[in-house]
DNA sequence: TTGCTGTGCTAACCCGATTTAGCACGGAGC
DNA sequence: GCTCCGTGCTAAATCGGGTTAGCACAGCAA
């Protein structure tokens, strides 16, 4: 494992000083370098396949082309992986690398990870949440460049934020049902104040002009959804369409509908949110509004590296992925 | 954003030279430092909450306490996230951070990412694959410390490798069926030579003394599994148990069984591999052998940071997660 | 007194880059 | 001949640590 080629080697090879080599390679035009010397340096660098030591450079310039991602969970949800992927790829496009830290939501771990990253001179942070939610800024982050990723500060934003446009998503989902004639529609899931998306989606549904005929309250998992929808189908008002607040709820709803002898979409249309893998796997496949996780990660990196004049909250559009779970109401 | 406290500041505050401060803080006992001076330095460091600049340190020591993860896909599969999580947390335990790179399997991108990491002085690499498979070592990695993560070199290993113990997993799955009396068992999925796990699982199944009554060939996705199992149930030999090569196949099998009027587990027992989220969500919930992804990531970090005397291949045990999809055969 | 030994510390160099300050040289103008 | 200016470069400082070599002093033996 031969030791790396240094700037010194390049300079020697080109017959100039380290200073000159540095000027040429960092492209500083304010210093007077002859075309000849410049060519010799560039050639030497190429021939030796010189790569600058970014630690040494960072020591001087205080930039490392490295971004820290602080996440509550890297992967409780598969979603989180998409955020990371979007961020990693965007970082690479900007010639940056991503170092990641998982905090499990623990403030202590959070502080430690941020410090560990600062010790390594990261240029800035992505402060990410798996679930879109309102969050508080950890004190250690104060004074350092960062972007809210899939979360929002309580009050006015001191930094930019990237979140999915859940409100429009609500409108999309509702319109997918009304467009084919559904009028009696139930909402499945519980619009908890904790879950920011729930409120937004509901607002979007209302904005679409839909009056929800019934709300089936349940936690956002297949089992509770199955139970709640089963009893709703047995005793609740009759509906022709279901808006499920996520795909896992939709899975529970499918199971309940099937046991109740209802066929999707002939007897019951279903639309959902998230567009997880599940949506494509169910029979019939599930129409769902996709969370743009990779794009969230990507845009957050963009905003961190090319910050706007003043902080902005960017709402990334969500798209309806139409599949086979919606049909016009029968009769 | 006040500039960081440096070793110089600590030394000044303690009334000693930078050298002495460095000796105390790095814990070198071969230099003679009086107890008094030592205490003053430690106190100063504490009071100023000094944290060493790891770039500066790394420049000298050539270690950065940073590990690079090279992955084909950070998240095509939710699994990948688990590997990352396991690695991140293990790294943190060892006072290391993880920087990640995604290559999409592209050798060019791979080389670039590895170089980018080397430029930042990472101490070593985890060369990871989402799917367990035999892999070739990228040339850029040669000469640097690394560990194979969820993949294996073709021949003799020049570095350690961490893989799931798929063979025992096969035995576990098969035994789960035979233990309650199943004798006519079908295997669903296609034992492709590309997919290392398939061969191992099959070998494990055979090692359990099970003769597979039929093999239902299909790709490892719900839709093709549904089609293949449907036609098998209609025309194939009668079986009481199904071993599905992953959970997505099991989902397809559930759908097929249901349409054929067979009830799981009363008429048909099902066991599967992976133990993805899906397994817990299906009705009845699915018994599955869990892929230990987080543990793979964690062990890989351990092996990288505390390398054994000679390279070893570590097979991480897989555990059977028993749920409701297995019952004794009827009659 | 001289020499030796051990204790406790520090000056100076090194890692590999960037950056500031300024030197050497040639030609033009007076 | 002397100054002045522009051109083209480099010496040296700097970033913040780790590390080597060696200095100053005290105590003790001969």
From TrEMBL, chains A, B:
GO terms for molecular function: DNA-binding transcription factor activity; transcription cis-regulatory region binding. InterPro entries: HTH_LacI, LacI/GalR-like_sensor, Lambda_DNA-bd_dom_sf, Peripla_BP_I. It comes from the Bacteria. Pfam families: LacI (PF00356), Peripla_BP_3 (PF13377). It comes from Asanoa ishikariensis. This is Transcriptional regulator, LacI family. SMART domains: HTH_LACI. Residues 5-61 form the HTH lacI-type domain. Keywords: DNA-binding, Repressor, Transcription, Transcription regulation. The keyword Ribonucleoprotein does not apply. The keyword Nucleotide-binding does not apply. PANTHER family: HTH-TYPE TRANSCRIPTIONAL REPRESSOR PURR-RELATED (PTHR30146:SF148), LACI-RELATED TRANSCRIPTIONAL REPRESSOR (PTHR30146).
